[in-house]
Amino acid sequence: MIEFEDVQKSYRVEGRDVSALRDINLEVRAGEVFGVIGHSGAGKSTLLRLINLIERPSSGRIRIDGEDITDSRGGELMALRRGIGMIFQHFNLLSSKTVAENVRFPMKLAGTYSRDQMQHRVDHLLDRVGLADQANKYPAQLSGGQKQRVGIARSLACEPRILLCDEATSALDPQTTQSVLRLLGDINRELGLTIVLITHEMDAIRTICDRVAVLDAGEVVEQGTAAQVFLHPRHQTTQRFVFETEHIDEDERQEDFAHVPGRVLRLTFQGEATYTPMLGDIARRTGVDYSILSGRIDHIKDIPYGQITLSLIGGDTDSAEQALHGADVSVEVLRP
Ligand SMILES: Nc1ncnc2c1ncn2[C@@H]1O[C@H](COP(=O)(O)OP(=O)(O)OP(=O)(O)O)[C@@H](O)[C@H]1O
User: Fold this and answer.
1) Bridge-partner residues for 166, per DSSP?
2) Which InterPro entries does the UniProt record give (predicted)?
């Protein structure tokens, strides 16, 4: 588990203190994929770099598995960093070394692996990320997705317990992003590795994160399970991220509703409820008519969800709304 307790971080810029993070209290549970989302400058990279102490907090404490690491130095700091892998937006591979040499490199630096062990791990890791046949190529000969797979293999070389992902898919196209995220999700499950991922893309959060924190101007403005935060965003910043990824234009939507009669509701179904046919039944029982204004069924990590916006017209709309509440559906009234 990674804990941030009352962490503040400011940088000294031209004789002035510039605050990058304020009052950060977070808990990343062992074995989960934890996402941190925020706009540029929100403090995501700073937060990530505090975990392996590339940056040190100005105040507050950071603990890993109960051990206070805040003041670690020397050999202790080196051991801490060996237990934490990292992957980067621009991959940070050594261009003069082959794929295999890149993956071997951290083990050579650690000095705790024999030649045979290193070779065995390089083969195993390249096989795991699907690049067994690329071992002797140079980074320049690979696609972006392949480079990030090398980055992932390298980050796992010294058997870390934590993996930090710094905008790891931001330089990749959507399809490659999904395959790299799936690989990270599989590795998280197989190795029980704790993953902390920073991103400005809600889709990355939706695809693999268990829980998420939203950073805005150096503060955590919202946190919870990925499903809670994605389906019921409370803070304006979170809502903007969700609307962006769903391609929803709030003004346009309000205008659309203006042309529709009746009570406008947004229903959110999760898990089993997603596939339960209930709308027709409730409409029949309460005599309401409904028209669907928009809808989608998708997944947040492995959990199916459905979200539809509909208008209820005529009949007993109060009873229909109540019946929906009672049917394990979250109901938001967009227009009474
Ligand atoms: N080394 C540094 N020296 C001075 N100021 C810094 C330094 N690193 C970050 N900052 C400042 O701290 C704030 C947070 O930056 P940070 O890079 O952590 O945000 P971010 O959310 O990761 O943004 P981006 O997505 O653009 O990388 C910004 O105001 C930034 O200018």
Assistant:
1) 88, 198
2) AAA+_ATPase, ABC_transporter-like_ATP-bd, ABC_transporter-like_CS, ACT-like_dom_sf, MetN_ABC, MetN_ABC_transporter-like, NIL_domain, P-loop_NTPase
CA triplet 169, 224, 41: central angle to 5 degrees?
50
Domain containing 23 — which CATH number? 3.40.50.300
Claim to verify: residue 63 and residue 173 sit in the same structural domain: yes
pLDDT at residue 57 is higher than 90 = yes
Residue whose CB lies within 8 A of the most ligand 1 atoms, among 40, 45, 89, for a mutation test: 45
How many structural domains is the chain composed of? 2
The H or E element spanning position 152 is helix 144-156
Quote the ligand 1 centre to 119 CA distance (angstroms). 38
Residues sharing a CB contact under 8 Å with residue 167, sequence separation 6 or more, in sequence order: 44, 88, 89, 198, 199, 200
pLDDT 10s digits, 210-228: 999 999 999 999 999 999 9
Structure tokens at 102: 């890149």
Classified as helix, coil or strand, 19 is strand
Which has the closest alpha carbon to 167: 243, 90, 228, 273?
A: 90
Find the helix packing angle between 99-110 and 115-128, rounded to 10°: 130
Are residues 67 and 162 located together in one domain of the fold? Answer: yes
| Ligand 1 centroid from CA 228, angstroms | 28
Interface predicted TM-score (ipTM): 0.96
CA of 202 to the centre of ligand 1 (A): 20
Domain enclosing residue 279, as ranges: 256-335
pLDDT over 80 at 100, yes or no: yes
Q: What average pLDDT does range 266-281 have in this prediction? A: 78
Q: Note the pLDDT tens digit of each residue in 6-52.
A: 999 999 999 999 999 999 999 999 999 999 999 999 999 999 999 99
What is the position in ligand 1's atom list of the atom closest to the CA of 46?
A: 18
